[in-house]
Write a structure and sequence with these properties.
The protein is an alpha+beta fold. The protein folds into 3 domains: about 10-60 and about 120-285, Bira Bifunctional Protein, Domain 2 (BirA Bifunctional Protein, domain 2, 2-Layer Sandwich), CATH 3.30.930; about 300-395, 3-Layer(aba) Sandwich (Rossmann fold), CATH 3.40.50; about 415-485, Translation Initiation Factor IF3 (2-Layer Sandwich). About 35% of the residues lie in helices and about 30% in strands. The strands form 7 sheets. Strands 3-9-10-16-13-12-11-24-27-23-22 form an 11-stranded mixed beta sheet, with helices on both faces. It has a 5-stranded mixed beta sheet with strand order 18-17-19-20-21, sandwiched between helices. Strands 4-8-5 form a 3-stranded antiparallel beta sheet. Strand 1 and strand 2 form a beta hairpin. Helix 2 crosses helix 6. It is globular. The model has no long low-confidence stretch (mean pLDDT about 95).
Length: about 500
């Protein structure tokens, strides 16, 4: 399998696209800005989805589904929400086509009385529904999650990282008190952090977005931010405290225990297929995709090697026995016994697709009851005994998982710096990139100036940071604690 992957140091953007292509994760679709997710990519998303879904259900959430189409009038009910999404909406104006000399055309008689919006997010239609679901405090809390697709009209797109249509989950919860809603917001933020770090092996920083960066219609937006290998940050997940904004917009009230009528408190939270992009840019190398074992669709691949029919029969039988034993041990294992491809081609394919462990077996290995193990993360190879493999492999997969996290954590620390002056800040960004902690005076004007002059944004006001008063690097005005800046995707 000929590899055609650009080196990261030469062109990081092209390297990323090459990895997506060569690992058979996704391709561009006939619709500009949309993507076709291939089986390799979708299997990875399924594993992410499965783990997150289990974590959501452990915290009391249930899945439901709401319509793809939203009446245009719904978006106008919450002023900040419509302002935030107005420029990204796909609008349906007619309901059918008719034949014409040029093929088909829109039937002008089918114009809708009210246009429909293809959902960019579901707060409006869900809160219109919740009005019918909620009458009393006994109906609360409502803890709902939806797995769905959404459409946001993007002009500049990149596979997984930013596409016009993408897959995601969106949680929408309703609560009787502000305290409960705020606790829910932080709880789900921590679910995302646990998933990112324990399963994706991707270290993240948690924090609160500034007013100009928060979700349209939210009171507070919490986020997890990750650092990619090229020194750019990636917003990997968000959790929003919506206050009573949507409850008031859609008149969702409940009768409290004291008999008084009150508005409901709300949250929403979500992650998307953007996580696949983050996974690629956190771990992969110039040889292709590198996957953390806990999410890899195939954790171990067994590649038999033979020269003639007799050897083929022996090594495949040996491999089959091993396959059944590893599968019985709960490992996602594949036996690659295809005879139309040579072993070298298979090695290259599984390497570029990121399979964490490769087992190679030849006639000599059968005779000696041995196997050759190759790690994808370090490319190290070693010969081990066949006996005890069912015990060794799970331990080795966990070692790889930990090693990937530690490598990413170390790199993130190396890419995190502190600046005290604006000149120092700009020099760090231009020379190293990465995260920069520095003081900011809290004004939108200063935030916009920094963004326009450096292309860096405030990623978050970190939750776990020592309160250390200082002076804004730009204006010299007082600042209670440093905030986190970076250039980002």
């Amino acid at each position: 399998m000929a590899k055609k992957i650009t080196e990261r140091r030469k062109d990081y953007s092209q390297w990323y696209l090459d990895v997506v292509r060569e690992a058979q994760l996704a391709s561009h679709s006939p619709v500009r800005g949309c993507m076709v997710i291939k089986p390799n990519g979708f299997s990875l998303w399924e594993n992410m989805q499965r783990q997150l879904d289990d974590m959501f259900k452990e915290t009391g959430h249930r899945n439901a589904y709401f319509p793809l189409f939203i009446p245009k009038s719904f978006l106008s009910k919450e002023a900040q929400h419509v302002e935030g999404f107005a420029k990204e909406c796909a609008v349906i104006t007619h309901s059918r086509l008719i034949n014409s000399e040029d093929g088909v055309t829109v039937d002008p008689a089918s114009k809708l009385e009210e246009e429909l919006i293809v959902r960019p997010t579901s707060e409006t239609i869900i809160w219109d529904t919740y009005r019918d679901w909620i009458q009393s405090y006994r109906d609360l809390p409502i803890l709902i999650n939806q797995w769905a697709n959404v459409v946001r009209w993007e002009m500049r797109t990149r596979l997984f990282l930013r596409t016009m249509e993408f897959l995601w989950q969106e949680g929408h919860t309703a609560h009787a008190t502000e305290k409960e809603a705020r606790e829910e917001t932080v709880r789900m933020l921590n679910v995302y952090r646990t998933f990112a770090e324990d399963y994706m092996a991707m270290p993240v920083i948690t924090g609160i977005k500034t007013e100009s960066e928060r979700f349209a219609g939210a009171v507070d937006t919490y986020c997890i931010e990750a650092m990619m290998q090229d020194g750019k940050a990636l917003q990997a997940g968000t959790s929003h405290f919506l206050g009573q904004n949507f409850a008031k917009a859609f008149d969702v009230r409940f009768q409290d225990r004291d008999g008084k009528e009150k508005f409901v408190w709300a949250t929403s939270w979500g992650v998307s297929t953007r996580l696949i992009g983050g996974l690629i840019m956190t771990h992969s190398d110039d040889n292709g995709l590198v996957l953390p074992p806990r999410l890899a669709p195939t954790q171990v691949v067994i590649v038999p090697i033979w020269r003639n029919d007799d050897e083929q029969s022996r090594v495949i039988e040996y491999g089959n026995t091993m396959f059944k034993a590893l599968k019985g041990a709960g490992i996602r294992v594949k036996l690659d016994d295809r005879d139309q491809y040579k072993p070298g081609w298979k090695f290259s394919q599984h390497e570029v697709e990121g399979t964490p462990l490769r087992i190679a077996i030849g006639p000599r290995d059968v005779d000696n009851n041995k196997v050759e193990l190759a790690r994808r993360d370090t490319l190290e190879k070693k010969i081990v005994d066949r006996e005890g493999l069912e015990m060794l492999i799970p331990e080795l997969l966990e070692t790889i998982q930990s090693a990937l996290f530690e490598s990413a954590r170390k790199r993130t620390l190396e890419q995190t710096r502190t600046a005290t002056t604006y000149e120092e800040f700009k020099e760090i960004l231009d020379t190293h990139g990465g995260f920069v902690y520095t003081h900011w005076d809290g004004t939108v004007e200063t935030e916009e100036r920094i963004k326009n002059e450096t292309k860096a944004t405030i990623r978050c006001l970190p939750l776990e940071i020592e309160e250390k008063p200082g002076k804004c690097m730009v204006t010299g005005k007082p600042s209670p604690y440093p905030v986190l800046f970076a250039r980002s995707y």
